[in-house]
Description:
By secondary structure, the protein is mostly loops. It has strands spanning 10-11, 14-15. Strands 1-2 form a two-stranded antiparallel sheet. A hairpin with a 2-residue loop joins β1 and β2. The radius of gyration is 16 Å and the shape is elongated. The chain starts with 9 loop residues before the first strand and ends in a 63-residue tail after the last strand.
Amino acid sequence: MHSDCISRNCTDGMCVIPTCFDGILNHDEVDVDCGGSSCPACAFGRSCVLGSDCLSGSCLDDLTCDTPSPTASPTDVP
């Protein structure tokens, strides 16, 4: 049963090691398969706790990832 496993994932009655690609909020992820110390950063609108949880590097007050700041392109520079 999934709830019997720390990973919240079991296959054939055996607990499965959590990964950043299993579609389950587990391990130290902040949102499903992103954030925390082991998984890739989360996209805009996903849950976060710290700026490092987000691709944009910015976690908003409502604990969701902010949109990335626009990056200047060579044509934007005078």
